[in-house]
Amino acid sequence: MRVSSLGSVPRRVVGAAFAVVLLGGGTVGCGGGSPGDSARGGSSGETPATAVRKAAENAERIESLHYRVSGTVPEKGLLEAEASMRTEPAVMKMTMKASRKGANGRMEIRFVDGVMYVSGSAIDPEKLGGKSWFSADPAVWGRGATDNQSYWVLPRQLEGNPAAQSTILTAAKGVRRIGTETIDGTETTHFRGTVTGRGIGAARDAAPNKAARERQINNLDQFMMLRINGTLTVDLWIGDDDRTKQFRMRGDTRATRGGTDGQPLEFIDGDPLDLTFTFLDVDQPVTIEVPPSEDTADLAASEDEARTG
User: Cis (ω within 30 of 0) for the bond into 285?
Assistant: First the structure.
């Protein structure tokens, strides 16, 4: 079966449809300075700010990435995921297991050619009609805060490119060296700092060149995507090759309520965010296959049938 476009079906309708087919119901989105140089950097004696900047520059050149994610995210609770992605063309595949309020479920998510495919035990088999996959399009992963579209299947914090997210510490206040640690067999230096939206704006305005300014513009976009309410604490582990091996983001978040049926949209306190991303392989070949069309149900077509049937 050919994957069809959503056409006139609103994205919020398809998002609600995905909430229905996911076991446990799912959650629809409308519910509920400059770095410090006081400490020294790695073995070369460079400052923390310089070490973090070098890692960011290398991260910006990443074309493909295999990575692992663990921690807690708003609305999903405990989460474990492993993914591979490529920037050109932008594709991604992820296996994700989330647990909240006793509801457990595993999903496999793929983004290929502007279409999202979802399979796994988190999907109600009765909604699949005997097939293994659901599809929805247009779907976008790895772009900015206003461009991503995963129909609420992915937590918003996982819709961004982790290589881009890892550079956000370049806008932190008082970056300091914590020590040395071994991460997955790699010797690393551990750095920590805090980031705010205002601090990213100040770093952007004080940027010494175009590349640094564009990095802070991207960081502000990533910060918006995380929906942080106040301060984000970032830990970064950098190897001797000046490449990021792991980073962790922690902070309180904000959520939205209302915005439909004439109700005003308002911001409310959300759940805490605490995610750790570990880079497993960088710039290795990534192949992501489209599921068989005969084993894929088109979510938009299913929603159209439900509305007219």
Answer: no
Instruction: Report pTM.
Output: 0.82
State how far the Cα of 207 lies from the Cα of 291, in Å rounded to an integer.
45
* pLDDT digit string, tens, across residues 126-138: 778 889 999 999 9
Please tell me the predicted confidence (pLDDT) of residue 13.
Answer: 52
Rounded Cα–Cα distance for residues 296 and 3 (Å): 8
The full set of domains in the chain, from first to last, is 11-32+34-308 (2.50.20.20)
Compute how many other C-beta atoms are within 10 angstroms of the C-beta atom of residue 118.
26
Q: Which helix (H) or strand (E) holds 226?
A: helix 210-226
What are the start-end ranges of the E strands in the chain?
A: 64-73, 77-86, 91-100, 103-112, 115-119, 133-136, 173-183, 186-195, 232-239, 244-251, 254-257, 266-269, 273-282, 296-298
C-alpha 191/C-alpha 225 separation (Å) is 23
> At residue 235, what are phi and psi to the nearest 5 degrees?
-110, 140
Q: What pLDDT, in 10s, does the model give residues 259-284?
A: 566 766 566 667 899 999 999 999 99
Q: Which amino acid is at 162?
A: P
The Cα angle at residue 306 between residues 303 and 309, in degrees rounded to 5: 140
For every residue of 51-75, DSSP letters joined together read HHHHHHHHHTT--EEEEEEEEEETT
